[in-house]
Amino acid sequence: MPPHLSADRPAAQPPSRGSVEALITQTRQLKGDVDAVRRDTPADGSDPQGRWQRALYDLALHQLSDLDEHLAQLRDGPQRLPEASLAAEAVPAVRAVPTAPRRDSLLSRVGSAEWNLLNDEASWSGELYQILGRDPAADPLTLDELPSLVLDEDRPKLTAMVTDCLIDAKPIDGEFRIVRPDGGVRTVHMMGEPVLDADGSTASMWAVLRDVSELRRSQRTVSETHDSLQRHRHHAQSERRLAVELQEAVLPPWRGSLRLPHQGPQALDLAAHYLPSSTSALIGGDWYDALELSDGDTLLSVGDLTGHGVTVTSGMAMLLGALRGMAVAGTQPGQLMTWLNQLLDASVQPALGSAVCCRYRPESRTLTWAQAGHPAPLLFRDGTGRMLNPPDGVLLGATSGAVYGQAEETLAPGDVLLLHTDGLVPGRREGTAAAHRLLELAPRFDEARTAQECVRAVVEEFGETEREDDACVMIARVAP
Description:
By secondary structure, this protein is an alpha+beta fold. It has helices spanning 17-40, 48-76, 83-88, 126-132, 155-168, 213-250, 310-328, 333-345, 431-439, 442-447, 451-462; strands at 5-6, 110-116, 121-124, 172-179, 185-196, 202-211, 258-260, 268-275, 284-292, 298-308, 353-361, 366-372, 378-381, 384-387, 407-410, 416-420, 471-478. The protein folds into three domains: 15-77 and 214-250, no CATH class; 91-211, PAS domain (Beta-Lactamase, 2-Layer Sandwich); 252-478, 4-Layer Sandwich (Phosphatase 2c, domain 1). The strands form three sheets. Strands 1, 2, 3, 4, 5 and 6 form a six-stranded mixed β-sheet that branches. Strands 7-8-17-16-13-14 form a six-stranded antiparallel β-sheet.
């Protein structure tokens, strides 16, 4: 705020028109650029971050419009009175009616006023009449009358600002809300100073009043959308934390190698790895599992429940728990898949899932397996690999009454069995293409001496690549 005005001080010279015009051009160019970027922003009303970004763009556009408005006033100078008004100045009894700008003009949001304390007269610009919604033919309100336009709860604030200005010569800089004759409520920002006479006494008070209703509305929208975004992120973080805890509680506790069954020849050397999505922070429904059964057999399974988040992770926990329970009860893989399909089909929250379930008998090295819309296991032997021929089986939860086939494969000492979920090979959704990439690892598997070394080879090949979905891989190596 500049120093207090003096009634006999010469007026400041206006800035160069050319320099202001250049600033206006730059401001309007920037406004156009911001508006272009805003239009390119996806208008997805369901995305909290997108709503917050658009609100910020709107606020920036409002502020640039205000800057354009102020610069235009600097360029054009005070509004000239029409000839009729100039003639009326010779007749003091007749008050000149201020001319207001167009309602849609940028200048219509800033008005000025001066209150003469010596003769109790007031002078308003046409813009101020328009901001306050008053008839330009009506007399301007005095300082005593001005609070009548203000909301009751804001009147003490206005009174305090005016009193401090007139008595203590403090500048005015504050906001209050006014009620227009049509009932509309507008937020007005007021800046003003006392004008001192030669004796240093307050002769009058001038003020600039600006309608900031749209600006404040944009700021509130930014604040509200930011709060909504923060709540959304907090909810997402909480959901992810819960999903991770649930996943860790359900998946096998072993992270290194495991030998099943624990005793006896022809056991399986097992290792597994979970690869998270690189594009989503949410946990999916992928799982792997290995369990020694009471009859000496070993249960192997991998699967994927569609979706992400706590709901999917809890559904995966239910499915895996049912699979373990039925396997312990002696259910063979084909029948087990049939019952899992019935369970998922009857679930309160319908979902689709895929799975492969294997039962390994060490005495005969026989692998009995079934699948439900899932990639078939890959068998590696003597430096080459192949995909096992899959028995019939549709996705779990896809149709009621589905029947699942069952197949058998005799393994040999040193064989490597690879089970995996979709998404292990990023960018290749087709099963045959993904299998081909994995089969190319056969020479490395042939050199490996443990299942953990085989898993390490898979992770080195595919672990660093960006993937849209999470994935699991499990290696079972028959003891030589």
